[in-house]
Amino acid sequence: MKTTFFGHAVLRVDAPSGASLITDPWFDKNGCFFQSWFQFPENAPFVEAAFNGVDDILLSHNHADHYDPVTLKRFLAESPTRRLHIAQFGTDWFAKRAKRFLPGFEDRIVVHEPWERFKIGDDLSAYFVPERSPGHIDSAIVIESKRQTILNLNDARLDSAQLARIRARSKGVNIVALQASGASEYPLNYLYDSADMKERCHTKRRLKFEACTKVLEQIEPHRVLFFAGPPVFLDPSLAELNKRSDESVFPDQLDVLNHFQSHNPKLAESCYFALPGEELDDTVLWSST
User: Fold this and answer.
1) Pairing between strand 175-178 and 2-5?
2) pLDDT single digits (tens) 74-131
3) Neighbours of 199 (CB within 10 A)
4) Which helix (H) or strand (E) holds 126?
5) Residue 45's CB: how many other CB atoms inside 10 A?
6) φ and ψ at residue 111, rounded to 5 degrees
7) What is the pTM of this model?
8) What dihedral angle (degrees, nearest 10) is formed by the CA atoms of 118, 124, 130, 136?
9) 155 and 63 in contact (C-beta within 8 Å)?
10) CB 104 within 8 A of CB 133
11) Do 10 and 22 contact (CB within 8 A), yes or no?
Protein backbone atom coordinates (compact mmCIF):
# COMPACT_ATOMS: atom_id res chain seq x y z
CA MET A 1 0.00 0.00 0.00
CA LYS A 2 1.09 3.58 -0.64
CA THR A 3 1.39 5.99 2.28
CA THR A 4 1.57 9.74 1.68
CA PHE A 5 2.42 12.32 4.32
CA PHE A 6 0.42 15.55 4.18
CA GLY A 7 1.91 17.42 7.12
CA HIS A 8 1.47 17.39 10.88
CA ALA A 9 -0.29 14.05 11.68
CA VAL A 10 -2.02 13.66 8.30
CA LEU A 11 -1.42 10.34 6.54
CA ARG A 12 -3.18 9.09 3.44
CA VAL A 13 -3.08 5.36 2.74
CA ASP A 14 -3.97 3.89 -0.66
CA ALA A 15 -4.37 0.19 -1.45
CA PRO A 16 -3.88 -1.38 -4.91
CA SER A 17 -7.63 -2.01 -5.14
CA GLY A 18 -8.37 1.70 -4.91
CA ALA A 19 -9.42 1.71 -1.26
CA SER A 20 -8.05 4.71 0.62
CA LEU A 21 -8.25 6.54 3.93
CA ILE A 22 -6.91 9.67 5.60
CA THR A 23 -6.02 10.27 9.26
CA ASP A 24 -6.43 13.44 11.35
CA PRO A 25 -6.78 15.87 8.42
CA TRP A 26 -5.83 19.32 9.75
CA PHE A 27 -5.65 21.78 6.84
CA ASP A 28 -7.51 24.88 8.05
CA LYS A 29 -5.64 28.00 6.87
CA ASN A 30 -6.71 29.73 10.07
CA GLY A 31 -4.66 27.33 12.16
CA CYS A 32 -6.12 26.37 15.51
CA PHE A 33 -6.23 27.24 19.19
CA PHE A 34 -7.59 30.75 18.58
CA GLN A 35 -5.32 31.20 15.55
CA SER A 36 -2.18 30.92 17.66
CA TRP A 37 -0.79 27.75 16.03
CA PHE A 38 -0.31 27.07 12.33
CA GLN A 39 0.84 24.06 10.34
CA PHE A 40 4.55 23.91 9.65
CA PRO A 41 5.40 23.32 6.88
CA GLU A 42 2.17 24.70 5.42
CA ASN A 43 -0.06 21.96 4.01
CA ALA A 44 -3.20 23.82 2.86
CA PRO A 45 -2.21 23.69 -0.86
CA PHE A 46 -2.38 19.89 -0.69
CA VAL A 47 -5.88 19.54 0.72
CA GLU A 48 -7.55 18.62 -2.60
CA ALA A 49 -4.94 15.97 -3.40
CA ALA A 50 -5.20 14.58 0.12
CA PHE A 51 -8.96 14.00 -0.09
CA ASN A 52 -9.31 13.10 -3.76
CA GLY A 53 -11.05 9.72 -3.93
CA VAL A 54 -11.03 9.16 -0.17
CA ASP A 55 -14.23 7.94 1.50
CA ASP A 56 -12.94 7.06 4.98
CA ILE A 57 -11.60 9.62 7.47
CA LEU A 58 -10.07 8.33 10.70
CA LEU A 59 -9.86 10.68 13.66
CA SER A 60 -7.71 9.91 16.70
CA HIS A 61 -8.82 12.53 19.22
CA ASN A 62 -10.34 15.93 19.86
CA HIS A 63 -7.34 18.29 19.92
CA ALA A 64 -7.76 21.07 17.39
CA ASP A 65 -4.58 20.20 15.48
CA HIS A 66 -6.13 16.78 14.76
CA TYR A 67 -9.87 17.48 14.79
CA ASP A 68 -10.51 20.19 12.19
CA PRO A 69 -14.29 20.74 11.80
CA VAL A 70 -13.81 23.34 9.04
CA THR A 71 -12.06 20.84 6.79
CA LEU A 72 -14.30 17.94 7.82
CA LYS A 73 -17.51 19.85 7.04
CA ARG A 74 -16.23 20.82 3.62
CA PHE A 75 -15.25 17.36 2.55
CA LEU A 76 -18.16 15.50 4.15
CA ALA A 77 -20.47 17.85 2.23
CA GLU A 78 -18.56 17.22 -0.98
CA SER A 79 -19.23 13.47 -1.03
CA PRO A 80 -22.27 11.66 0.42
CA THR A 81 -20.27 8.43 0.78
CA ARG A 82 -17.59 9.86 3.07
CA ARG A 83 -17.57 8.59 6.65
CA LEU A 84 -15.79 9.75 9.78
CA HIS A 85 -14.48 6.95 12.02
CA ILE A 86 -13.72 7.58 15.70
CA ALA A 87 -12.97 5.45 18.74
CA GLN A 88 -15.31 4.66 21.60
CA PHE A 89 -13.68 5.97 24.76
CA GLY A 90 -14.67 5.39 28.37
CA THR A 91 -17.52 7.87 27.96
CA ASP A 92 -19.48 9.19 24.97
CA TRP A 93 -18.01 12.68 25.37
CA PHE A 94 -15.95 12.67 22.18
CA ALA A 95 -18.70 11.11 20.05
CA LYS A 96 -21.15 13.73 21.28
CA ARG A 97 -18.65 16.51 20.64
CA ALA A 98 -17.91 15.28 17.13
CA LYS A 99 -21.60 15.23 16.27
CA ARG A 100 -22.24 18.63 17.84
CA PHE A 101 -19.54 20.31 15.77
CA LEU A 102 -20.56 18.53 12.56
CA PRO A 103 -24.29 19.23 12.37
CA GLY A 104 -26.02 17.51 9.51
CA PHE A 105 -23.39 14.77 9.29
CA GLU A 106 -24.22 12.87 12.48
CA ASP A 107 -25.28 9.77 10.57
CA ARG A 108 -21.85 9.57 8.90
CA ILE A 109 -19.91 9.37 12.16
CA VAL A 110 -19.06 5.75 12.94
CA VAL A 111 -17.96 4.90 16.48
CA HIS A 112 -15.79 1.80 16.95
CA GLU A 113 -15.02 -0.20 20.06
CA PRO A 114 -11.33 -0.45 21.03
CA TRP A 115 -9.46 -3.07 18.97
CA GLU A 116 -12.47 -3.55 16.66
CA ARG A 117 -11.20 -4.12 13.13
CA PHE A 118 -13.25 -2.51 10.40
CA LYS A 119 -12.90 -2.91 6.65
CA ILE A 120 -12.06 -0.12 4.23
CA GLY A 121 -12.59 -1.38 0.72
CA ASP A 122 -11.46 -4.87 -0.21
CA ASP A 123 -7.92 -4.85 1.11
CA LEU A 124 -7.56 -2.36 3.95
CA SER A 125 -8.64 -2.59 7.57
CA ALA A 126 -8.09 -0.44 10.64
CA TYR A 127 -8.70 -0.28 14.36
CA PHE A 128 -8.34 2.16 17.23
CA VAL A 129 -6.39 1.64 20.45
CA PRO A 130 -7.39 4.27 23.03
CA GLU A 131 -5.16 5.27 25.90
CA ARG A 132 -6.03 3.43 29.09
CA SER A 133 -6.07 6.53 31.27
CA PRO A 134 -9.66 7.73 31.73
CA GLY A 135 -8.36 11.29 31.81
CA HIS A 136 -7.01 11.15 28.25
CA ILE A 137 -9.23 11.14 25.17
CA ASP A 138 -6.71 9.92 22.61
CA SER A 139 -6.13 6.82 20.52
CA ALA A 140 -3.60 5.23 18.22
CA ILE A 141 -4.71 4.14 14.75
CA VAL A 142 -3.56 0.83 13.29
CA ILE A 143 -3.92 0.42 9.51
CA GLU A 144 -3.43 -2.97 7.88
CA SER A 145 -3.25 -4.57 4.48
CA LYS A 146 -2.33 -8.17 3.73
CA ARG A 147 1.35 -7.26 3.57
CA GLN A 148 1.84 -4.13 5.66
CA THR A 149 0.89 -2.58 9.00
CA ILE A 150 1.11 1.10 9.94
CA LEU A 151 0.91 2.18 13.57
CA ASN A 152 -0.02 5.86 13.75
CA LEU A 153 0.50 6.78 17.39
CA ASN A 154 -0.08 10.50 16.78
CA ASP A 155 -0.11 11.88 20.37
CA ALA A 156 -1.31 8.69 22.08
CA ARG A 157 0.64 7.30 25.02
CA LEU A 158 0.05 3.58 24.89
CA ASP A 159 1.47 1.31 27.57
CA SER A 160 3.84 -1.61 26.97
CA ALA A 161 1.06 -4.21 27.05
CA GLN A 162 -0.92 -2.38 24.38
CA LEU A 163 2.16 -2.03 22.18
CA ALA A 164 2.97 -5.73 22.60
CA ARG A 165 -0.58 -6.67 21.65
CA ILE A 166 -0.43 -4.54 18.48
CA ARG A 167 2.85 -6.08 17.46
CA ALA A 168 1.61 -9.62 18.06
CA ARG A 169 -1.75 -9.02 16.41
CA SER A 170 -0.19 -7.60 13.28
CA LYS A 171 2.82 -9.96 13.28
CA GLY A 172 5.12 -6.97 13.05
CA VAL A 173 4.78 -3.28 12.14
CA ASN A 174 6.22 -1.74 8.99
CA ILE A 175 5.82 1.97 9.78
CA VAL A 176 5.39 3.79 13.08
CA ALA A 177 4.35 7.44 12.96
CA LEU A 178 4.55 9.39 16.20
CA GLN A 179 4.77 12.89 17.56
CA ALA A 180 8.19 13.81 18.93
CA SER A 181 7.54 17.35 20.09
CA GLY A 182 6.50 18.22 23.63
CA ALA A 183 3.60 20.37 22.54
CA SER A 184 2.24 21.52 25.88
CA GLU A 185 2.42 24.64 28.01
CA TYR A 186 4.84 23.18 30.55
CA PRO A 187 7.32 24.55 31.43
CA LEU A 188 7.03 27.54 29.10
CA ASN A 189 3.92 29.02 30.67
CA TYR A 190 5.43 29.13 34.14
CA LEU A 191 7.76 31.58 35.86
CA TYR A 192 11.18 30.15 36.59
CA ASP A 193 14.54 31.83 36.71
CA SER A 194 16.59 31.39 33.56
CA ALA A 195 18.84 28.60 34.86
CA ASP A 196 15.89 26.63 36.22
CA MET A 197 13.91 27.11 33.01
CA LYS A 198 16.84 25.90 30.93
CA GLU A 199 17.18 22.77 33.02
CA ARG A 200 13.45 22.03 32.91
CA CYS A 201 13.39 22.44 29.13
CA HIS A 202 16.37 20.12 28.74
CA THR A 203 14.67 17.54 30.97
CA LYS A 204 11.36 17.66 29.13
CA ARG A 205 13.06 17.38 25.77
CA ARG A 206 15.21 14.46 26.95
CA LEU A 207 12.23 12.59 28.43
CA LYS A 208 10.26 13.02 25.21
CA PHE A 209 13.04 11.58 23.07
CA GLU A 210 13.56 8.74 25.56
CA ALA A 211 9.85 7.91 25.46
CA CYS A 212 9.91 7.78 21.66
CA THR A 213 12.97 5.54 21.75
CA LYS A 214 11.35 3.09 24.18
CA VAL A 215 8.28 2.76 21.97
CA LEU A 216 10.36 2.13 18.87
CA GLU A 217 12.61 -0.37 20.64
CA GLN A 218 9.54 -2.37 21.64
CA ILE A 219 7.76 -2.22 18.28
CA GLU A 220 10.90 -2.57 16.11
CA PRO A 221 9.31 -1.09 12.98
CA HIS A 222 10.95 -1.19 9.58
CA ARG A 223 10.53 2.58 9.14
CA VAL A 224 9.72 5.59 11.37
CA LEU A 225 8.04 8.93 10.72
CA PHE A 226 8.46 11.60 13.37
CA PHE A 227 5.84 14.21 12.69
CA ALA A 228 7.33 17.06 14.61
CA GLY A 229 7.49 19.76 15.60
CA PRO A 230 4.65 21.88 16.73
CA PRO A 231 2.65 24.19 14.53
CA VAL A 232 4.49 27.48 14.10
CA PHE A 233 3.57 30.38 16.39
CA LEU A 234 2.72 33.59 14.52
CA ASP A 235 1.60 35.63 17.53
CA PRO A 236 4.47 38.06 18.30
CA SER A 237 4.11 37.30 22.01
CA LEU A 238 4.79 33.60 21.28
CA ALA A 239 7.37 34.01 18.52
CA GLU A 240 10.20 33.26 20.95
CA LEU A 241 8.97 29.66 21.03
CA ASN A 242 9.82 29.20 17.35
CA LYS A 243 13.55 29.42 17.96
CA ARG A 244 15.36 26.17 17.26
CA SER A 245 17.88 25.13 19.89
CA ASP A 246 18.71 22.19 22.12
CA GLU A 247 16.61 23.89 24.81
CA SER A 248 13.42 23.98 22.78
CA VAL A 249 10.66 21.64 23.96
CA PHE A 250 9.09 22.23 20.54
CA PRO A 251 11.66 20.64 18.21
CA ASP A 252 10.76 20.44 14.54
CA GLN A 253 11.27 17.36 12.39
CA LEU A 254 14.78 18.37 11.35
CA ASP A 255 15.77 19.00 14.95
CA VAL A 256 14.42 15.59 16.02
CA LEU A 257 16.28 13.78 13.26
CA ASN A 258 19.53 15.61 14.04
CA HIS A 259 19.15 14.51 17.65
CA PHE A 260 18.75 10.86 16.75
CA GLN A 261 21.55 11.06 14.21
CA SER A 262 23.82 12.08 17.08
CA HIS A 263 22.41 9.89 19.84
CA ASN A 264 21.00 6.86 18.04
CA PRO A 265 22.30 6.68 14.46
CA LYS A 266 20.91 3.19 13.90
CA LEU A 267 17.41 4.49 14.60
CA ALA A 268 18.02 7.56 12.43
CA GLU A 269 18.80 5.32 9.47
CA SER A 270 15.22 4.03 9.48
CA CYS A 271 13.58 7.48 9.71
CA TYR A 272 11.77 9.35 6.98
CA PHE A 273 12.39 13.05 6.41
CA ALA A 274 9.18 13.89 4.59
CA LEU A 275 7.50 17.12 3.59
CA PRO A 276 3.76 17.53 2.87
CA GLY A 277 2.74 15.70 -0.28
CA GLU A 278 5.63 13.21 -0.26
CA GLU A 279 5.17 9.46 -0.38
CA LEU A 280 6.83 7.48 2.39
CA ASP A 281 9.38 5.42 0.52
CA ASP A 282 13.13 5.04 0.73
CA THR A 283 13.77 8.10 -1.42
CA VAL A 284 12.79 10.28 1.57
CA LEU A 285 14.85 8.47 4.19
CA TRP A 286 16.90 10.74 6.42
CA SER A 287 20.02 8.85 5.38
CA SER A 288 19.29 9.73 1.75
CA THR A 289 19.26 13.49 2.25
Assistant:
1) unpaired
2) 999 999 999 999 999 999 999 999 999 999 999 999 999 999 999 999 999 999 999 9
3) 13
4) strand 124-130
5) 11
6) -105, 130
7) 0.95
8) -120
9) yes
10) no
11) yes
